[in-house]
Amino acid sequence: MNDKNRQIVLKRNPRGAFSPEDFEVRETAVPSPDEGEFLVRNIYLSLDPANRLWAAPTETYVAPVRTGEVMRGFTVSEVVESRHPDFRPGDLVQGMDGWQDYAVSNGVNHNGRGVVDTWKLDGVRAAGLPLTTGLSVLGTTGLAAYYGMLHVGQPRQGDTVLVSGAAGATGCVAGQIARIKGCRVVGTAGSEEKCRLARDEYRFDAMIDYKAEDMDTALAEHAPDGIDVYFDNVGGDTLDTALAHTAMGARVVICGAISQYTTAEQGIQGPANYAHLLFKRASMAGFIVLDHYPDLRGRMEADLIQWIKQDRLHYRDEVVDGLENAPEAVNRLYDGRNLGKLMVRIADEP
Amino acid sequence: MNDKNRQIVLKRNPRGAFSPEDFEVRETAVPSPDEGEFLVRNIYLSLDPANRLWAAPTETYVAPVRTGEVMRGFTVSEVVESRHPDFRPGDLVQGMDGWQDYAVSNGVNHNGRGVVDTWKLDGVRAAGLPLTTGLSVLGTTGLAAYYGMLHVGQPRQGDTVLVSGAAGATGCVAGQIARIKGCRVVGTAGSEEKCRLARDEYRFDAMIDYKAEDMDTALAEHAPDGIDVYFDNVGGDTLDTALAHTAMGARVVICGAISQYTTAEQGIQGPANYAHLLFKRASMAGFIVLDHYPDLRGRMEADLIQWIKQDRLHYRDEVVDGLENAPEAVNRLYDGRNLGKLMVRIADEP
Prior knowledge:
Chain A is of the alpha/beta class. The first copy, chain A, contains twelve helices and 17 strands.
């Protein structure tokens, strides 16, 4: 164990895309757990679209990360010291232990509304899956896809489902779950490579390259009877065009709006076609999957593991080496460079 | 009975507000019912915000009224001749018999998705209420308020409910129903007179004059814990600001968007703050009350009549004389001049 703790701190609120200058590296002593706490060594750090929301100075669904604070992030970690009755050294856990080498935790991660407990990755290990899945398909990313698609979107067999950001870490899981439920699944992505990945690896029935095709024409072709469920990760023009193609009684699931996060300071693009909610007797709803962990996390994880085992659910993890590279790597989410769930390897697996 | 049938026909699709030149008057012979049909003499014609939507050339929730066709409208009428087994001369009915003196009907009014049957105003008469209520509080206007508030908005006792267009025919009913259900009800309207009417007559707990006050400041004052149910009749800035003030788990009910109907050709203002659906785990849904008439009209009418009898539900009917004045009068809806449910008296009550 090192005796130094590298921390990446938010130095200033970003304008537009993240810049490495928005962060600074700080070295502190490794903290010691008090009674009821444990010390973790972070192994993998999740980079998520929501990072940019958290780093803005405005309240969203969580309090913003303040300048001078360690940047917030989901982590897969090893417990190295414990004064907490439920955690022992050697336990592998998923928590929210931030952009740093070490963290002290009491096992409770506040998320603005309620709390999310640090959980042990026993399910991942028992299934023989890589630890990285604790941040990807079996982490918040995959669980958001599960909850949003099944509980909010409520797809029915035979429905036409549209997923934006279909090659992304959440979109690919959302689309595959809809397909498992007997839907015809159409996706959008921003390159031929991503479209091919979604078609070949995630088995989307049809893909639309929104940078190369006219979305309106493409939706008329691929969803001629309208969209029953739209799982939206991107917002902007894609959301707007999709609303105009909703079927009667459609459910629009707002999971994210990545196209808007880096331009929010210049104003968000509202969906001008929202009146289709009226015309189509449709609904549009947001959710935060963390709210549902106490009730549903175990059940959702078990289903996802089963589908992976049955080879019906594929995923892709993209690991960047080195905590020091997180400030640069996080921008891959917003400029469309990443393929799969983006994370940083902070330390070797035990 | 006259032997001429005056019809007001849509001559051209309006640009911006309705203009009297968008219509022309045509005189035809009074039609004769075939087997299975009946002839009605229209007494009252409902003028509704949706009229402007119907007169645009684009598909909304119903097919557009085509140029050269009689303008579509809800009516209260007397059956004057019948070859239909369920209707007899002298029956008073609510139907969709248009901007004209006489119409032949088979009792089934297509509304784009399903059908809405012409119904007899027996409930209105048995309750001793004016026939005009068949178009206002007991017509589509009041029923939309009922369905939208109770079935879509699902207010709970103690909720803070916001209603836009609170002095309007739908808004005033929506607000009073929320109050009956034990909510604290805040409204918006565009004049001091309307705000006073809503406070004094419809007993809103607080009113915001959106033309005189800053909406953001006023909502912070009147809904300090956030809005649990927002019943939106107006769209535009009011919807956008309200979204930023939603409480956790809020339900936003899209009943209409009157601020946008006359400017739709220049582009609709989408709600930039829709991301609050995500932040607040909220939902936004549209509905068309006509869909629910087969199952719920009788029950909804009975509740509304009971509340009127108990003096818990007030309404106001604004009647303009003369079918020929409909093209001018309809603009009162969009420029904010009307107070109460706007309708035209086409003929004297029997």
